[in-house]
Amino acid sequence: MIKKTSVSLLVVCVLVFFSATAFAGAHGKKKPMKKGILLAAFGSSFPETQGVFEHIEEKVKAAFPNVPVRWGYTSHIIRHKLAKQGEHLDSVEMALARMMDEGFTHVAVQSLHTIAGEEFHGTRRNASAFGDMAGGFKKILTGYPLLGTSDDLKRVSDCVIKIIPKQRKKSEAVIFMGHGTHHPANAFYEALVYRLQKKDQNIYVGTVEPGIDEIRDALLKKGIKKAYLIPFMSVAGDHARNDMAGDEDDSWKSILAKVGVTGVPVMKGTAEFDCFVEIWVDHLKNVMSHFK
Ligand code: CO
User: Fold this and answer.
1) pLDDT one-digit tens code per residue, 24-48
2) Cis bond leading into 145, ω under 30°?
3) How many angstroms does the Cα of residue 181 sit away from the middle of ligand 1?
């Protein structure tokens, strides 16, 4: 009885061995590791912002010279707007499908968003779904956005202070325009304000919605007459040009002008400054360290 069992066990083992080698031999040789990076940005309809994305890509390529870099854009509206002008950009999912087809095995998706809001979580959810697919990636991980951790809050607040125009006097305000979201991650903006105001009481961070009213009132109370307006978004795109610095009645510049505060727009997005880009790149490094 014992003998019979061990013989059949041996047969099973041999069968398993042969079938395993048969799989590795005739069909699908074990895929060699092929690492890739996918940069996931919201996107912008302004062609001028293309240089900003190139700047990020340069930094990423410098950190990972031998890893192919692809792009995916999360904003449906922007992709469709650009498609009408003849420029076809991939969504994150389209870019990943192409990478899957090209035989990438390990993919680092780096979110270039500001906070871990809807765009980030959607990207992460869909990216990980690609890891579950038959023939999908062996490993796919998504790196944190700019403000992902408490350490990021510290680094971002240091960088924010650094990029304030040198000519600004301490008695003048600096107002950053974040995008804002109904997602709970919106609280990161408040956390950033807390950190910044510990360093400088006249720095504010508002969001497109609900807007600048509260900040305007605070400025009036303090008797501040001048405020620098700076986008706290990766690129100085539509919101910065229109909602922040535009001539329309409801732009931040106009709202401040109505109460006698001169707004001085600074048209540069966070991705134009190395100290912010380094944070995204560090999150990417963290993801890549899992691919060995
Ligand atoms: Co928007």
Assistant:
1) 445 666 789 999 999 999 988 888 8
2) no
3) 9
